[in-house]
Amino acid sequence: MREPVDLRRQRILAAVQARGAARVRDLADELQVSVVTVRRDVEELTREGRLRRGHGVVRSTLPAQEVPSGGLSEGDRVAVVVPERHSYLTETLHGARTALEEAGMRMALHIAPQVAGAERPLVERALADGARGLLLAPRWHSRAAEDADHGWLAALDVPTVLMERRPRQGSAAHALDSVCSDHWYGAHLAVEHLVGLGHRRIVFATREDSPTARTLRAAFTSIAGAHPLLEEWAWALISPQAGREGPYTADETAGLPRLLRRVRATAVVLHSDVDALMVVQQLADDAVRVPEDCSVVAYDDVVAALATSPLTAVSPPKAEVGRVAAELLVQRLREGGERPARRVELLPRLMVRGSTRAWRGSGSLEGTAAQSDTAQDDAGRSDAATVDVTTPN
């Protein structure tokens, strides 16, 4: 039997007043009616002056002191802390901001400089200023930096969600909520795409100064090492400045053109895509054509599509990571901390563009050895690819 209109509107009014603000979509789910029905009810309650309507959000008209303290009220702040010069997280921030605004909350952004331990004082300041929850993406350029943050992160007494960061298993911060891209799956997409095109010799080049880089290195080496169709593969640092963990083998720090020739690679996967664009330029200097002589897959898809010849790229769901993290945080704020911690993984996609093609059994990688296999060429051109354009994810 259909619920009377007046009763349904009273339930909407009670739900919004209990929380201070609510999303139309959430109200429709709770009442088990359509979004259109809730919108009509909200419009009528707004006309009567009993609710205030925003973009997808309904807010109470009660004074702040009359709203129960456990609910969300307009003006509540969530502090978001991310590293400076981090273009990868720009889309993540947009996703988080949209979800927080829909919930009637305000995002206070804090930018952490490129120094060790920069996030903690920003978090402490944000909490002193009244932030009710935290969305964090610590820099963690090394495992030691990550371990140094685990203790104080675990001791935070407000709801906290990590974005694109997952503490080491068994660490003090292991039980924090987190929302991440499944970078193992992203590596899998890249490998299977190239193998499906007939490539059997692949080089993987990543950074080593970010959590994503370390995850990708482990993923690439495990996937490639177990793949029955790969004849030879190697991993290397994208540039000498991109590694801090070490020590590394001679191959792992060799100039990329030299390593490609040694492996006789027909394809390369590069993290990040800013570095990938620079490596493509470097290969062109060595008379290696992309994709005719060497297919290229970038990882991150921040600027890969903007290249002169757009690059095939693994595209993590950056905006969705921010949106889901913010929604999880809002849910924590509404319901308290009784539920178990959640670790959410979202799958990347592969964006196929013009930098990959089927391998046809011929190319110039070996032919360029006589022209560019000198130490001078390798050193000079490798250095050309080390400009620090952006902070890696």
Task: Describe the fold and architecture.
Mean pLDDT is 84; it is low at 64-72 and 367-389. It is elongated, with a radius of gyration of 25 Å. Helix content is 40%, strand content 18%. Strand 11 (267-271), helix 10 and strand 12 (295-299) form a beta-alpha-beta unit. The strands form 3 sheets. Strands 5-4-6-7-8-14 form a 6-stranded parallel sheet, sandwiched between helices. It has a 6-stranded mixed sheet with strand order 10-9-11-12-13-15, sandwiched between helices. A 3-stranded antiparallel sheet has the order 1-3-2. The longest helix is centred in the C-terminal third of the chain and has 18 residues, at 318-335. The chain has 393 residues and is an alpha/beta fold. The chain contains 13 helices and 15 strands.
Strand arrangement in the largest pleated sheet: 5-4-6-7-8-14
The biggest sheet, with number of strands, parallel, antiparallel or mixed sense and barrel status, is: 6 strands, parallel
Using the alpha-carbon principal axes, give the shape. elongated
Total strands: 15
Number of helices: 13
Strand content: 15-25%
Quick description:
This protein has about 400 residues and is α/β, with parallel strands linked by helices. The chain starts with a helix and ends in a 9-residue tail after the last helix.
Looking at this protein, list some descriptive labels.
18% strand; 393 residues; 15 strands; alpha/beta; elongated; single chain; 6-stranded parallel β-sheet; 13 helices; 40% helix; 6-stranded mixed β-sheet
